Amino acid sequence: MTPHDRFDELSAGLAAGVEGHEGLVGLVLLGSASDDAVSRRDEWSDHDFFAVIADGRGDEIRPDLSWLPDRDRIVLEAREGEIGFVAMYDDGHVMEFALSEARELSGALAGDATVLVDDGARTTARLIAAARGRAAAADGFDPANDARLVLVKLLIGVGRARRGEALVAGSFVRQWAVQHLVRALRGRFPERSTRHRDAIDPLRRFELDFPRESAQIADAVARPVEDAALALFTLTRSLLEPQWPEFPTCAADTVARRLHWA
C-alpha cells in the first residue's frame, strides 16, 4: 500500500467511524488532508480535522476515542487543551483534531477544508463557512507594527540571555522575533506571496515564497542565542529598512546602543 493509499484509507475510516457513532454529527478534513489541498500532500502530511459532537454531549463523548480507524495500531493518544487531541499510529502517522460541539469552535479559523460527514441541519458546513470567513477577515498584515515587535522581542530575548535565562531567551529570539519578521516580510512585499501561502499561519510554506530570506533566517536561528539575535537584527534592517519610511529606524538604533551592537 502506498502512503497515498494509506492516507485515503484512514480518511475513509474516519468518515465511517463518525457516521457510525450516534453522538457525532460531522467530520471535516483540514489543510493537506482536504481535497482542496491534495496536491500538497506528502509522506509527512498529518490528518488534521474537526469531529463535531452533538450539542450538549461534549463531556460525555470526548473520553471515548474508539471510533478512530485502525484502533489496534494506535501507539499514543494525548490531549491538547479541552477539545484538542492527537493520536499516533505505529507507522508514525499522526492525527491532530478537535473533538467538540459546534459552539466550542465558534472562534475557529479554517482554510482548505472538505466536509465528509454532516447532519441534516448542515451543522458542519455552516461551521466551516464561518471559520473560513473569520480566516479571511484576519488574513492581513501590519508590517510596520511587526517590524517594531521584532525589535522588542530581540531586546527582551538578549536581556534574558544575559541574565542567564537561556531557554526563555531562545523563545523570544527564535520563535517570537522570527514570527514577527516573517509577518513583516509578507506584509512589506505582498506580491511575493503565492497560492502556496497559508492564510492562517504565515510561517507555513514561507520557504516557497521567500527562499533566500528563509535560508538566511534559518542560518541565523541555528546560532547561539545572542549571536542569533544579532543576526536576526541585522537581517531585519537589511531586508526591511531600505527605502521604507515606516521602518522604526530610531528604535533599531536604540536597541543597538542598549545591547552594545555598535
List the helices and strands and how they pair.
Elements: H1 3-19, E1 24-30, E2 47-53, H2 58-61, E3 74-80, E4 84-89, E5 94-101, E6 113-117, H3 123-138, H4 143-163, H5 166-188, H6 206-209, H7 211-221, H8 225-240, H9 249-258
Parallel strand pairs: 2-5
Antiparallel strand pairs: 1-2, 1-6, 3-4, 4-5
Helix pairs in contact: 4-5, 4-8, 4-9, 5-8, 7-8
Short account of what is shown:
Helices cover 47% and strands 15% of the residues.
Q: What descriptive keywords fit this protein?
A:
6-stranded mixed β-sheet, alpha+beta, elongated, 9 helices, 262 residues, Four Helix Bundle (Hemerythrin (Met), subunit A), Beta Polymerase, domain 2
Protein described:
The chain is of the alpha+beta class and 262 residues long. It folds into two domains: 3-138, 2-Layer Sandwich (Beta Polymerase, domain 2), CATH 3.30.460; 143-258, Up-down Bundle (Four Helix Bundle (Hemerythrin (Met), subunit A)). It is built from nine helices and six strands; from the N terminus they run αββαββββααααααα. The protein has a six-stranded mixed beta sheet, sandwiched between helices. Helix 4 packs parallel to helix 9. The protein is elongated.
